[in-house]
């Protein structure tokens, strides 16, 4: 059997009980490279970590499939361990389809995505009556490093961007175009390394974010949150 398990944002405290049980009872765990050692150490069986470095993502993904399929053909209980939630920008659906082509139906165990955990751990509510009655989660990178379909601004909505650090220098110029309509002074926050001991929360506005990110040397992983909710609980501890 094979289960796609969401590992959450990287802190073992945020693993679900189901994820922990799957990790401890698996014969084979095939994990994403960015997962921290504290999560990987929970694997009860053999551990294979994907070598997904820049420029070889496709090759690494094929190695992941090969490792999982080898375990399945050997009758092993396989866990495919993925950061965040497998179905939130995690290629989980692609992996389900690939395993199905080989006659294996993958079970999916959701994890806590950084799009939810990042704002929450920074004291930023995604919704608040009278401030934001909906939120949008989008990637800042399209397929093959193209631009995504950028969202249009709505005043009572929160916008969460994942994988957006490299886009910070141009984010203001993109989103303030007439077709997207984001206000230049819209409050926003960057949550860097959510749930980790070195978590950092930076608050700014859309027109100032590029300068702030450069001065503060913002690095991935980070979640970008745009909207009035980023300031409504600003006195809360980060």
Give an overview of the whole structure.
The chain is α/β, with parallel strands linked by helices. It is built from eight helices and ten strands. It has helices at 17-25, 37-40, 57-73, 92-101, 114-121, 168-175, 209-216, 229-232; strands spanning 2-6, 28-31, 46-49, 78-82, 107-109, 134-139, 157-162, 187-192, 200-205, 222-226. Strand 8 and strand 9 (200-205) form a beta hairpin. Helix 6 packs antiparallel against helix 7. The termini are far apart.
Topology at a glance:
Elements (H helix, E strand, L loop, with lengths): L1 E5 L10 H9 L2 E4 L5 H4 L5 E4 L7 H17 L4 E5 L9 H10 L5 E3 L4 H8 L12 E6 L17 E6 L5 H8 L11 E6 L7 E6 L3 H8 L5 E5 L2 H4 L6
Parallel strand pairs: 1-4, 1-5, 2-3, 2-4, 6-7
Antiparallel strand pairs: 7-10, 8-9, 8-10
Helix pairs in contact: 6-7
Keywords:
238 residues, alpha/beta, Cobalt-precorrin-4 Transmethylase, domain 1, Methyltransferase, Cobalt-precorrin-4 Transmethylase, Domain 2, five-stranded parallel β-sheet, five-stranded mixed β-sheet, 8 helices, 10 strands, 29% helix, elongated, 4pyrrol_Methylase_sf, Uropor_MeTrfase_CS
Order of helices and strands: EHEHEHEHEHEEHEEHEH
Rounded to an integer, what's the Rg over CA atoms? 19 Å
- Strand order, sheet with most strands: 3-2-4-1-5
- The rough form would be described as elongated
Give the CATH class of the largest domain.
Alpha Beta
Estimated structural class: alpha/beta
How many DSSP-defined strands? 10
CATH topology of the largest domain: Methyltransferase, Cobalt-precorrin-4 Transmethylase, Domain 2
How much of the residues is beta strand, in percent?
Answer: 15-25%
- Summed up, the helix count is 8
Uncertain spans, ≥5 residues at pLDDT below 50? none
Count of structural domains: 2
Fraction of residues in helix: 25-40%
Mean pLDDT: 93
CATH superfamily of the largest domain: Tetrapyrrole methylase, C-terminal domain
How far is the N terminus from the C terminus? 41 Å
What's the architecture of the largest domain, going by CATH? 2-Layer Sandwich
Pfam families: TP_methylase
Domain Tetrapyrrole methylase: 2-209
Protein name: Tetrapyrrole methylase domain-containing protein
Keywords: Methyltransferase, S-adenosyl-L-methionine, Transferase
């Amino acid at each position: 059997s094979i289960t796609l398990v969401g590992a959450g944002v990287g802190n073992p405290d945020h693993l679900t009980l189901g994820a922990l049980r799957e990790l401890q009872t698996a014969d084979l765990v095939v994990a994403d490279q960015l997962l921290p050692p504290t999560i990987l150490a929970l694997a009860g069986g053999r551990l294979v970590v994907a070598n997904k470095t820049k420029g070889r993502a496709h090759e690494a993904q094929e190695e992941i499939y090969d490792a999982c399929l080898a375990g399945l053909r050997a009758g092993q209980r396989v866990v495919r361990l993925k950061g965040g939630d497998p179905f939130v920008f995690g290629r989980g659906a692609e992996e389900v389809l690939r395993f199905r082509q080989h006659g294996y139906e993958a079970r999916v165990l959701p994890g806590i995505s950084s799009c939810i955990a990042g704002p929450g751990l920074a004291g930023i509510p995604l919704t608040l009556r009278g401030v934001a009655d909906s939120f949008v989660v989008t990637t800042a990178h399209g397929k093959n490093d193209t631009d995504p379909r950028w969202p249009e601004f709505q005043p009572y909505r929160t916008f969460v961007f994942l994988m957006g650090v490299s886009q910070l220098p141009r984010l203001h110029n993109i989103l303030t175009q007439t077709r997207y309509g984001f206000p230049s002074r819209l409050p926003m926050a960057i949550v860097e390394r959510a749930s980790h001991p070195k978590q950092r929360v930076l608050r700014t506005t859309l027109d100032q974010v590029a300068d702030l990110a450069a001065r503060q040397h913002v690095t991935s992983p980070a979640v970008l949150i745009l909207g009035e909710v980023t300031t409504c609980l600003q006195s809360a501890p980060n």
